[in-house]
Write a structure and sequence with these properties.
about 270 residues; alpha/beta; Rossmann fold; about 20% strand; binds S-adenosylmethionine
Amino acid sequence: MRQLANRPFIVTTSRRPTDAQWADAAHWAERLDAPLVARRGGIATTCEFHGVVGAVVVGADRVTYHEPANDLQYFYHPGMARVRMQSIRRGRGDPMVTAMRLQPGDGVLDCTLGRASDAIVAAHVVGDAGRVVGLEVSPLIAQLTIHGLATYNDDSPRVTAAMRRIEAHQTDYRLYLSRADGGAFDVVYFDPIFHAAVEGSEQMVALRELGDSSGLDSEAVTEARRVARRCVVIKQRYGTPLWEQLGVDTVIGNPSTRVQYGVIEADREA
Ligand SMILES: C[S@@+](CC[C@H](N)C(=O)[O-])C[C@H]1O[C@@H](n2cnc3c(N)ncnc32)[C@H](O)[C@@H]1O
């Protein structure tokens, strides 16, 4: 059975599933390499019966990962993407976009896709002529995000359009970067899970719990500089020691935003 950071899980459905829901659940079980089981009452009872911590529950209109004992729920949502896109359209800008010096037509490699809020904002700015590729190593987050980007309909058609343009892959960025051509993207972006977490929504807390928190090392940044035509951008909490360790060229953001973006110019501009 697939271990999710030592969290064995099953795939099941909501109570009284339709045939279509059951077939859908079978696809999820295959994608996640986890056993498909029938519901036995509540989610907690079903987990207990199968001796697992978590359950992916395929409902009529949403797929949700539950850990009843940890009071944890995670489902796909594009987060603050819509608010940030509005802010850009109203001329107030966005610090990530500023740090990336992002233009229509640019290519962006988002190495830490998560739920793709940042990638959606990037896809909105680069537009149809640009390209955004997102990489996510956690199988559960990757599959929920890949599915969400393809099927979620936001109230804003602009958000939905940006979501559909993202090419999302379940893979480790180290592997992808090692195989990528030099200068393949204008910008390579990392948003590693913060060790000292800033507060966030329930979904952000769940993402931090379920995601890979192994951190960013200088080897990955060196590879990223090779793959980036313009720059590598890293998001971190304010006051991180990483800027000194990695030797960033510029830092964007201020204490009131709680996060900062470190910019390392690509080898080509060095
Ligand atoms: C803080 S979240 C990113 C949030 C994202 N920027 C967003 O807007 O939703 C970091 C994500 O990077 C993923 N991650 C960590 N190490 C990775 C690796 N080596 N390759 C690909 N993804 C990785 C984690 O599993 C987690 O989902």
